[in-house]
Amino acid sequence: MNTSIVTKLSCGLAGFSLGMWLFSKSAEAAKPHHVLDNVKHQFGQEGKILGSWINRTPQRYQKFAIKYIIYVGGITRLENNVPVNYLFMADAHTGSIINIKREAE
Description:
The chain has about 100 residues and is α+β, with helices and mostly antiparallel strands. Helices cover about 35% and strands about 40% of the residues.
């Protein structure tokens, strides 16, 4: 067999394998604890975190025509020596925060 053909086949197979691996990684859901760690890190830059939680069971959520699978969680941060609670929603596939709501005092 011609070495040029073998080289091309080897490169093609390697490229296909890499593509499949990258696709499988992008299709995996974000881990709930990683989402919570990200929120805690971001909120911790502006005040002391007093507590946090995340529901590890993904839920369906629709905002207008856009449908998501989400994680819901909460965080309490100290602001001006007063604890303030926030609820958040994060996309379960990407880990991106979709919504954050400050709870009324």
